[in-house]
Amino acid sequence: MIERSKPYEPEILAKLHKTQIEILEEFERICEKYNLEYFAIYGTAIGAVRHQGFIPWDDDIDVGMLREDYEKFLEIARKELGEKYQIMTPLDDPKYACTVTHLQKKNTKFVPIILRDEPYQMCIDLDIFPFDHVATDPREAKIQQFGATFLGRILFLIGTGEVIVPIQGWKGKMAEYICKCSHVLLKVFHVSPERVYKKFKKISTKYNKEKSSYVTSFEYAGGLKDKIKWEELFPTKEVKFENIKIKIPANNHEFLSNVYGDYMKIPPKEEQINHFPYMIQFEGEEPYINE
φ, ψ for residue 104 (rounded to 5)? Predict the structure, then answer.
């Protein structure tokens, strides 16, 4: 059985972090050139304030942008990135079945075990999460979250029938069976990732014109719980992150507390989870296979 999470060899993790910093610097270059705002989120924001860099076992970088700046970034980046980097969404590659936007470095690989048979390029990347306005009415907000979560899961199931189900016993086995059957049906009826992604985006952005007080990322199921006042995200603050500076939200403490509780506490070893890939490859090197 191939493990989905395990400690890296120190030199491999150091190389991965170095490559991800390079991608982040390219992302920041474009944001600075075109006056686009971004902010580090999730584990990256924790790492910035708790470790002044990566969480020691972490292996990705997450940033957020309000939808308006996110859309501007995508439009600019698709023209300006050149041959070294690329944007990955279902609109850029119709075979890509995931809601999370990747800015990835070409000629590298970072392939999760459950996606090892997928036909699209999975490279070492930076994850970009657009933040959209949450419906003011609580009932409408729940409907918004449910719709986005449902379509996000459908999108993922198009790509893979192998999912991680956090339920034990017969209920877990039943959930796995349903996921695999759904994957087959979605393939049989030729439901395209692009089509589902457009519907997901429509639900996520439904209330943006209203400029409600709260925003969140609908890319995961906890988005509604972790909503945050958008005006309190700014002005962003610069903090040390490895050998560079990175931006975090003005209300970083509130944001991280909403998501994680006591985020300054180091979790026990068994909860130090990463995304250890089935395959990882650095530019100009042979791929490493996790077997």
Answer: -125, 155
63, β-bridge pairs: 40, 128
Main-chain dihedrals φ then ψ at residue 156, nearest 5 degrees? -65, -40
Rounded to the nearest 5°, which phi and psi values hold at 136? -70, -40
The CATH code of the domain at 10-134+210-289 is 3.30.460
CA torsion 149→155→159→163, rounded to 10°?
A: 20
Q: What are phi and psi of 117, to 5 degrees?
A: -100, 5
What is the CA angle 282-48-83, rounded to 5?
35
Q: What is the pTM of this model?
A: 0.90
Q: Which two tokens stand for residue 51?
A: 């470790």
Domain spans of the chain?
10-134+210-289
The predicted-structure confidence for 5-35, as pLDDT tens digits, reads as follows 788 999 999 999 999 999 999 999 999 999 9
- Each residue's pLDDT tens digit, 42-69: 999 999 999 999 999 999 999 999 999 9
Check if the beta carbon of residue 145 is closer than 8 Å to that of residue 214: no
Cα 31 to Cα 67: distance, rounded to the nearest angstrom: 14
Closest CA to 7 of 59, 60, 57: 57
